[in-house]
Design goal:
The complex is a heterotrimer of chains A (384), B (561) and C (363). Helix content of chain A is 43%, strand content 11%. With 384 residues, chain A is of the alpha/beta class. In chain A, strand 6 and strand 7 form a beta hairpin. In chain A, helix 2 runs parallel beside helix 3 and helix 8 crosses helix 14. Chain A starts with 7 loop residues before the first strand and ends in a 6-residue tail after the last helix. The C terminus of chain A is likely disordered. Chain B folds into four domains: 134 residues, Rossmann fold (3-Layer(aba) Sandwich), CATH 3.40.50.2300; 177 residues, FAD/NAD(P)-binding domain; 144 residues, FAD/NAD(P)-binding domain (3-Layer(bba) Sandwich), CATH 3.50.50.60; 57 residues, Alpha-Beta Plaits. In chain B, helix 2 packs across helix 6. The relative contact order of chain B is 0.11. In chain C, 46% of the residues are buried. Chain C has two domains: 209 residues, no CATH class; 130 residues, no CATH class. The N and C termini of chain C lie far apart (47 Å). At the A-B interface, helix 11 of A face helix 15 and helix 17 of B.
Chain lengths: 384, 561, 363
C-alpha cells in the first residue's frame, strides 16, 4: 500500500454502491469523459457472469459492478480488446485488484495496450468459487451481497487464494473506489486518474487514512493466513516425490494454463510438436523403467509453466477453479511465485515501469563476471 | 524415395585412425537396426579435407546419388564449411549434410581404443538420426552495397570521402554541425607550414562539394542502422526539421573527431570569466579572427604562462597533439611580442613529428622558456608549481594559455550503441587492434578514423582516412555478391503472439515487429543465426533453420541413450 | 468369433494373457489403466515389464483421458501394443483412424462391456462411501451403476463388436473371465497361451435391461436440453457460462487440430473491429465468440462424437457439453445413416467427396 493514501471524493453511502457506480458511469459516458466501460453482467441462464463492454448507456442498468464470482480474469478481456489496433473509444474497466495486476503484467509482455484504457478497481472482499455459485446462484449471490455490504473481508466462503491475498486493495490502477464503512470514495492513483476525476467535476478533499488503517488490520490477518498456507504447501511439495504426489491426479487437460491470464502463448510449448515423440521413443522410455505413464511428462508441464510465468503470477486463483480434479494449483503456484519474485526483488503487477526480471536484458549485470570479460578482451586482436 | 545416406569416416592422417578402430566403426554403422530400411554407403578416407579427399567425396556423392551425408571427421570449426563447399558441387543440398566430430570430441580425448570406437559409433549414429530430419535450405544472394556512410565531416571524414567516392561508389557524408570541416576550420595555422595547410584543407572541402558522388548532409545525425557489412539499412535524421532519410550502404566510417576536457574539470585551474585564461583552441580562434592575441581588456599581455597536460592525469593518457600546438602558439606569441616572458610549464615534452624538434629548438632560441614541473596549480593567472627536485616556484603572468585533454566527442557513447561497436576504457571507439588493425572497429564493416578513436593530429587523420578508404575499396567491391547467413531464425506466424521477447534479445536488430499482425518477423538478411531468440521464446514459436527442435532432439536422443 | 472362458479372477486372467503376449515377444507393450503401489491416482500406462502387470486395473471405472486420443498419437510401431480400453475410447480411436491420425495396426484392441465411469472430480476427491464397491456390485449384477457420468448413464454403445478382443464385464461373475476373440489373427497370437479357445459369439441378451434403461435416460437428457431452449437463444442459454478455457476441445479425442482455428490469429480481432461491432450493438461480450466456438467445434466434429463425456467432465463451468454435442451429433449423423466408430471403413459424411450426390437437386 502507498505510504500516503491519496484524498478521495465521497460518491455516496455504502448501501447504494451499485446504483452509485452505475450512475457514475452513465454520467461519465454522457459527458464523454469516457466512451465505453467494461463491467460484469449476468449471463442469460442467471448462474454466472460475463464481461460486457458497454457503449450504449441503457445497458448499464443490467450491469453488476461487484460480481460475486470471477469466471474469467478480466485481463483476458482487456487483452482481446487492446492487443492490436488503434482505439477509437476511451474505455474504463472496473475490475478486481488481481485482474489489474494481471493486466499490468500483460502490458510488459506486449499483450495489452493501455492507451485509452482507464484502470479502475475497488477494495475486494474476495470471490466465491465458481462451482459453489453455479450450484446455488441465488443463495450465494445473497451471501456475497451481504458480505459486500457489511465489509466482511475474511469470509471462509471465498476462494482459497482470496483468503491469503494481501493485495486486495489499493493497487496499480488509475482510479480506486474505497468501499469504506463511511461510504464509497473515489480517489486517483495516477495522472490518468486525476484527469478522470477532474473531468467528472469532482474534488478529492476527504482523508481516507482511517479506512486505510482498517484495511491494514485485514491485511495482517491475510498475511498470517498466507504464512500458514505456504508452510503447509512447503511440506506438501518438498522434494520431487511430494511434488509428484500433489499433481498425481493431473489429467493433462491444460485448463490451468488456458485460464491463466499470464499464459499468453498461442500454442503452449508443451502442446507443440517439440514434445511429440514417435512411438519408438515411447517404447524406449517405457522399457527404461518398465512402464511409462500418460500423459507423458505431466510434471514437466507444471514445472515449465512455473518457470515461464511465476515471476508474473498474481495469485488470481483461476487455475485451481478450472482444474477438473481439484488440484490446489493456485496454492502451489502462489507459493513458488512468492519465492521467485522475492529472489529478484520483483512484485508482479506493481507497476508497468518495473521491468520483468528474466526477460529484461541489462548490460550491467553480474558485475563480478565483468572482470573476467575484461581480461579476455585484451588478448583479442582481430584479423587485420 | 528411399534415403541413401553416405557416411564418410575420415582418418585424419593418424589423428583419428590411430585412436579408434575405423573398420569396426564402419561395420557397426552398417549394421544399425534402425537404419535397416535405409541405404547406407559407408566409406573411409585418409584425409577428407585434402584436395584429393574433397574430390573423392564429391565423386562419391554424385556416383552414389546420395540423399544425405554424414562426415565423421574433425571439429565443425575446421571443416564444416569445407564439406558444405563440396556438397555445393553436387546434386546434394549442403543442408542435408552434417558433420560429426570424432576427433576433438572422441579420438583425442578417449584413451581406451575400444571405448573410443564405441563412442564414435554412437556419435555417428546421433548424426545420422539428425541428418534425416534436416531440410533443404537455399542460399540467397544479395548484391553487396558498395556505398559508404561517413559520420563526421572533419578533416578525417572529408579525406575519406574524397578517396572513396567514385561512379560506382556513393559516399554519404554527414555532420551534425551546420558547416563542414570540424575543428580545422577554427585553426589559424598548422605547425607544419608547407604551403598553407589550412588552404589545402579548405580546398579539399571545396572539392568535396563539387563531387557528384558525395552526398553531403549538414545538421544531420544517424537515427538508426541495422545490418552487416555490405548490407546496412540506414536512417538519417535532419536536426532542423526532424525529417528522416533512408538508404543502404556497405560500410560505415566513424570520423566524429574529439572534444576538449573542460578546464574546470582538470583539477588544476581556479579562474573566473574575468581572468585571462584561454585554451589553445581559443587562441587559434583569436588569431584567425584578429591576427593578434590580446587580453580581455584589449591590452597586450606582459607575461604568458603556457600550461601543458591539463587533465592528463584525469583522463589517463597523453593527448599527443598539445605539445606541438602549444609550441606553435608560443611561436605566434613570440612573433607578436618579441620581449615578454613566455614560459611553458611542462611535465614531459611529447615531440613525435619529424619537424617538432626543430620547432622546439627555434622556440628555445627565441627565449621561450620551458619549466619542468612535477605538479602545479593555477589561480587566476598565477602559477604555483613544484619541480622534479621538490623545489617550489611561482609564475606571475597576465595571460595563461593551456592545453586541455583530448576526450571523445559528445554523443560517442550513444553512437557506439547505435552502431553496436565497442568503446575503449576512455570512451573512444575501440580499435580491432591498437597496433595491428588500427582503423577497424569491433564491428565488421565499421571503421573509425582520426580522433574518433584517440588523440590524432591532421596527419594522423589523413593517413587513417586513406587507410580506411583503401580497406573499403578492397573489401567492398562494387558488384560483389554476398551470401547472408542461411541457418537463420524463422517465426512461425501462426503461433506468435507478439510478446517481443525475441526482438528485445536480438543483438543484431534482426527482428522487427509487424504492428498490423502484432507478430514478430525475422529479417533474414540481417539475422546471424545465433539462436538466442529461439531460446527465449516461451512457446517455441520461433525456430532455427537447421537447428530445429526435432533435429536436436534426434541427435541427443541417441547420445544419451 | 471365438470364445474363451478362464476360471480365474477377471483382472488376473487379463494380466496373465497380457503377460504371455509380452513374453512371447508378439507385443511390444501393454496399454492399460494402472494404479501403482502407494499411489492414489489411476492413469493410463504403457507397460513393457511383465513384472509390473500386477498393477494394471483394466476395468477400473475412471477415464483420465479418452484413450482413443492417446492412442491416436502413437506413430507407426514395429510391434503392436495390447491396448485395453473402453468401448467409447475404441470408437473414438476408429474415428481418428478415419482422419489419418491413428494407426490401427499399432494395437491389439481389447474392450469390454462398460458400466460407465465415475466423474473425475468425484474420483479425485477420494472414493468415499464405498462408491467403488457399489459400482462393482451393480456391474456384476448386470445393473446400471449409479453415480456415473451423465454420458455413461445414457450410453447405448457400451458393447463394441469390432475390437480384437471383447471381455464380458457387465453381468459377469468376477471370478470367471469370459473373453471373445473377433478375428483369426488375434486367435493366432494367443496360440500357446494355454487358453482354451472354442467357437462362440457374444450374446447381448443379458444387456437388454441396461440398454432399455439407458435409452429412457437418453430421452430424458436430450429433452432437458431442448427445455433449456432451441436455436441460437438456446445455445446462448446453455453456453452462457462458458469461460473459453477450451478444455472440452483439449480432451476431445476427435478434435485433433494442432491449433484450433478459434484460438488462431484468424479470430484475434483488433480493437478497431471490436469497437465497430460495439458501435452497432451497443454492448459486446468479451472475450468474443463464446457460442461461435461451440458451433464451430460442433460443425467440425459432431459427426464423430462418440459420447464419451470427457468434455462435460472437465468443464469448469459445469456445462453439459457432452450431452449437447452428442445430441446434435447423433441427429446429423442419422441423416446420413452414419454411426461414428461403428466401422473403420465407413467414411465420415461431410469429409468425403462423392461425385454423384443429391441427384434430385440436379433436376
Amino acid at each position: 500500500m502507498d505510504k500516503q493514501t491519496p484524498q478521495g471524493v465521497k460518491l455516496g453511502p455504502k448501501e447504494k454502491q451499485k446504483e452509485i457506480i452505475i450512475s457514475m458511469f452513465k454520467k461519465a459516458i454522457a459527458s464523454e469523459v469516457i466512451d465505453t466501460v467494461l463491467l460484469p453482467m449476468k449471463v442469460p441462464s442467471g448462474d454466472s457472469y460475463a464481461w460486457i463492454l458497454i457503449k450504449d448507456k441503457s445497458f448499464l442498468d443490467k450491469a453488476e459492478p461487484f460480481a460475486p464470482i470471477m469466471p474469467i480474469n478480466a485481463a483476458h478481456a482487456i487483452k482481446r480488446l487492446t492487443r492490436k489496433g488503434k482505439a477509437q473509444y476511451k474505455t474504463a474497466v472496473l475490475i478486481r485488484p488481481c485482474e489489474i495486476r494481471a493486466t499490468v503484467e500483460l502490458v510488459k509482455l506486449n499483450q495489452v495496450c493501455l492507451d485509452d484504457v482507464l484502470l479502475m478497481t475497488y477494495d475486494c472482499i474476495g470471490a466465491v468459487p465458481m462451482d459453489d455459485f453455479i450450484k446455488n446462484p441465488e443463495i450465494k449471490e445473497k451471501e456475497f451481497a451481504s458480505f459486500q455490504a457489511s465489509g466482511e473481508f475474511n469470509s471462509a466462503c471465498m476462494k482459497a487464494v482470496c483468503g491469503f491475498c494481501t493485495d486486495f486493495n489499493r493497487t496499480s490502477s488509475d482510479i480506486h473506489l474505497s468501499l469504506s464503512d463511511r461510504g464509497i470514495f473515489i480517489s486517483s492513483n495516477s495522472c490518468k486518474g486525476d484527469e478522470f476525476i477532474k473531468n467528472s467535476r469532482l474534488t478529492p478533499d476527504e482523508d481516507l487514512s482511517d479506512w486505510t488503517k482498517k484495511l491494514e488490520i485485514i491485511e495482517s490477518v491475510r498475511e498470517t493466513k498466507r504464512k500458514q498456507v505456504f508452510a503447509q504447501t512447503a511440506g506438501e511439495t518438498d522434494g520431487i516425490v511430494n511434488f509428484h504426489k500433489i499433481f498425481e491426479s493431473c489429467i493433462g487437460c491444460h485448463n490451468c494454463g488456458s485460464v491463466c491470464p499470464i499464459c499468453y502463448c498461442r500454442q503452449c510449448f508443451f502442446n507443440s510438436s517439440v514434445n511429440e515423440q514417435n512411438s519408438d521413443l515411447k517404447i524406449i522410455r517405457a522399457e527404461q523403467k518398465g512402464a511409462l505413464s500418460f500423459p507423458n511428462d505431466k510434471i514437466m508441464f507444471h514445472i515449465g509453466r512455473l518457470t515461464h510465468m511465476s515471476l508474473s503470477c498474481v495469485s488470481c486463483g483461476l487455475c485451481s477453479e478450472a482444474c477438473p480434479v481439484n488440484i490446489p494449483v493456485a496454492n502451489v503456484f502462489s507459493y513458488v511465485a512468492a519465492q521467485t519474485q522475492t529472489a529478484f526483488d520483483y512484485k508482479a503487477g506493481k507497476s508497468t515501469g518495473d521491468a520483468l526480471p528474466m526477460r529484461d536484458y541489462r548490460s550491467e549485470e553480474l558485475g563480478e563476471l565483468g572482470e573476467l570479460v575484461k581480461s579476455v578482451d585484451k588478448q583479442e586482436g582481430l584479423n587485420a | 524415395m528411399i534415403e541413401k545416406i553416405g557416411i564418410f569416416l575420415c582418418e585424419c592422417g593418424p589423428n583419428i585412425a590411430s585412436k579408434v578402430d575405423i573398420d569396426k566403426i564402419a561395420a557397426d554403422i552398417s549394421a544399425l537396426e534402425d537404419f535397416k530400411d535405409k541405404e547406407l554407403v559407408v566409406k573411409r578416407h585418409k584425409l577428407l579435407c585434402s584436395v584429393e579427399g574433397k574430390k573423392y567425396l564429391e565423386d562419391e556423392i554424385k556416383s552414389n546419388n546420395l540423399t544425405h551425408l554424414v562426415c565423421a571427421a574433425c571439429s565443425p570449426r575446421d571443416h564444416d564449411a569445407t564439406f558444405i563447399g563440396v556438397c555445393k558441387k553436387t546434386q546434394l543440398n549442403p543442408y542435408l549434410y552434417t558433420i560429426v566430430n570424432i576427433r576433438e570430441q572422441c579420438a583425442w580425448v578417449t584413451p581406451d581404443k575400444a571405448e573410443a570406437t564405441q563412442k564414435a559409433v554412437r556419435l555417428i549414429h546421433s548424426g545420422m538420426n539428425r541428418v534425416l530430419y534436416q531440410e533443404e535450405l537455399f542460399e540467397k544472394q544479395l548484391e553487396s552495397n558498395p556505398d559508404v556512410l561517413i559520420i563526421g565531416a572533419g578533416i578525417a571524414g572529408v579525406q575519406a570521402a574524397l578517396n572513396l567516392a567514385s561512379k560506382e561508389r556513393t559516399v554519404y557524408l554527414i555532420d551534425r554541425a551546420s558547416e563542414l570541416g570540424g575543428k580545422t576550420t577554427r585553426l589559424h595555422g598548422l605547425m607544419t607550414e608547407q604551403g598553407s595547410s589550412l588552404n589545402m584543407i579548405s580546398q579539399k572541402i571545396a572539392k568535396l562539394s563539387k563531387n557528384p558522388f558525395i552526398k553531403v548532409f549538414k545538421s544531420t545525425i544517424l537515427e538508426s542502422i541495422i545490418g552487416f557489412q555490405g548490407n546496412f539499412e540506414i536512417v538519417l535524421k535532419d536536426l532542423n526539421n526532424n525529417e528522416t532519410y533512408e538508404f543502404m550502404a556497405g560500410a560505415v566510417i566513424i570520423a566524429t573527431g574529439y572534444d576538449l576536457l573542460n578546464a574546470k574539470k582538470t583539477d588544476c585551474f581556479n579562474f573566473t570569466e574575468e581572468h585571462d585564461v584561454r585554451s589553445g583552441i581559443e587562441i587559434e580562434a583569436l588569431m584567425s579572427a584578429q591576427k593578434r592575441v590580446l587580453k580581455k581588456n584589449g591590452k597586450a599581455p606582459l607575461s604568458v604562462g603556457i600550461i601543458h597536460c591539463a587533465g592528463r592525469e584525469k583522463v589517463g593518457y597523453c593527448s599527443k597533439i598539445c605539445c606541438n600546438y602549444l609550441i606553435k602558439i608560443s611561436g605566434y606569441l613570440r612573433t607578436m611580442y618579441p620581449e615578454i616572458p613566455i614560459i611553458h610549464y611542462v611535465r614531459d615534452l611529447c615531440l613525435p613529428t619529424k619537424d617538432s624538434q626543430s620547432h622546439y629548438k627555434d622556440a628555445v632560441s627565441e627565449k621561450i622558456e620551458f619549466q619542468y614541473v612535477k605538479n602545479l596549480s593555477v589561480t587566476g593567472e598565477s602559477v604555483k608549481f613544484t619541480d622534479n627536485y621538490g623545489k617550489t616556484g611561482t609564475g606571475d603572468h597576465d595571460l595563461i594559455i593551456y592545453a586541455n585533454a583530448v576526450i571523445p566527442s559528445p554523443g560517442s557513447a550513444e553512437l557506439a550503441k547505435l552502431l553496436n561497436v565497442d568503446l575503449d576504457e576512455f570512451g573512444f571507439v575501440k580499435e580491432a587492434h591498437l597496433k595491428i588493425n588500427p582503423v577497424s572497429s569491433s564491428g565488421d564493416g565499421i571503421f573509425a578514423i582520426g580522433a574518433a578513436h584517440g588523440p590524432a593530429d591532421v596527419a594522423d587523420s589523413i593517413i587513417q582516412a586513406k587507410a580506411a578508404a583503401a580497406k573499403i575499396s578492397t573489401q567492398l567491391i562494387p558488384g560483389q555478391k554476398i551470401i547472408p547467413e542461411i541457418r537463420v531464425a524463422e517465426v512461425l506466424e501462426a503461433y506468435c503472439t507478439g510478446c517481443q521477447t525475441c526482438l528485445k534479445i536480438c543483438k543484431y536488430g534482426a527482428i522487427y515487429f509487424d504492428e498490423a499482425k502484432a507478430v514478430s518477423v525475422v529479417n533474414e538478411a540481417v539475422c546471424r543465426g545465433c539462436g538466442n531468440c529461439v531460446g527465449s521464446c516461451p512457446s517455441g514459436s520461433i525456430r532455427s533453420k537447421n537447428f530445429t527442435n526435432p533435429q536436436l532432439f534426434q541427435e541427443v536422443k541417441e547420445a544419451v541413450r | 468369433m471365438h470364445k474363451a472362458v478362464i476360471n480365474k479372477d477377471r483382472d488376473t486372467a487379463v494380466r496373465e494373457m497380457a503377460s504371455y503376449l509380452l513374453d512371447s515377444g508378439r507385443i511390444g507393450g501393454v496399454f492399460s489403466l494402472k494404479k501403482f503401489k502407494g499411489s492414489e491416482s489411476v492413469d493410463y500406462g504403457l507397460i513393457t515389464d511383465k513384472g509390473l502387470l500386477e498393477y494394471i486395473h483394466p476395468f477400473y471405472p475412471v477415464m483420465p483421458q479418452n484413450a482413443g486420443q492417446t492412442l491416436s498419437k502413437f506413430t507407426k510401431m514395429t510391434k503392436p501394443v495390447l491396448a485395453i480400453i473402453r468401448p467409447c475410447e475404441y470408437r473414438a480411436f476408429v474415428e481418428t483412424v478415419k482422419r489419418a491420425q491413428g494407426s490401427p495396426d499399432n494395437f491389439i484392441t481389447v474392450t469390454y462391456t462398460c458400466g460407465g465411469v465415475i466423474p473425475l472430480a468425484d474420483h479425485a476427491k477420494g472414493l468415499k462411501n464405498d462408491v467403488l464397491e457399489n459400482y462393482n456390485k451393480a456391474v456384476s449384477e448386470g445393473k446400471n451403476p449409479q453415480n456415473t457420468r451423465e454420458n455413461c448413464r445414457r450410453c447405448e454403445n457400451f458393447y463394441p463388436e469390432n475390437s480384437d478382443i471383447l471381455v464380458s464385464v457387465i453381468g459377469a461373475k468376477k471370478d470367471t473371465a469370459e473373453i471373445f476373440i473377433n478375428n483369426d489373427k488375434t486367435k493366432g497370437l494367443l496360440e500357446g497361451s494355454g487358453i482354451t479357445i472354442t467357437k462362440g459369439t457374444f450374446d447381448k441378451a443379458g444387456l437388454k435391461n441396461i440398454i432399455e434403461e439407458r435409452a429412457t435416460v437418453k430421452k430424458e437428457q436430450f429433452t432437458s436440453i431442448d427445455k433449456i431452449g432451441k436455436g441460437l437463444n438456446g445455445l446462448v442459454e446453455i453456453f452462457g457460462r462458458c469461460i473459453g478455457c477450451r478444455g472440452c476441445n483439449s480432451v476431445c479425442p476427435i478434435c485433433y487440430c494442432t491449433q484450433c482455428d478459434f484460438s488462431s490469429s484468424n479470430f484475434d480481432y483488433n480493437r478497431t473491429i471490436i469497437e465497430k461491432e460495439l458501435e452497432q450493438k451497443g454492448a459486446l461480450r468479451l472475450p468474443p465468440d463464446t457460442v461461435f466456438f461451440h458451433i464451430g467445434r460442433m460443425s467440425h466434429m459432431a459427426f464423430s462424437c462418440v459420447g464419451c463425456g470427457q468434455c462435460s467432465d472437465v468443464c469448469p463451468a459445469g456445462i453439459p457439453v457432452g450431452t449437447v454435442f452428442n445430441k446434435a451429433g447423433e441427429a446429423v449423423a442419422a441423416e446420413f445413416d452414419f454411426v461414428p466408430g461403428r466401422n473403420v471403413e465407413e467414411k465420415i459424411p461431410v469429409m468425403m467427396y462423392k461425385e454423384q450426390e443429391f441427384p434430385e437437386m440436379g433436376e
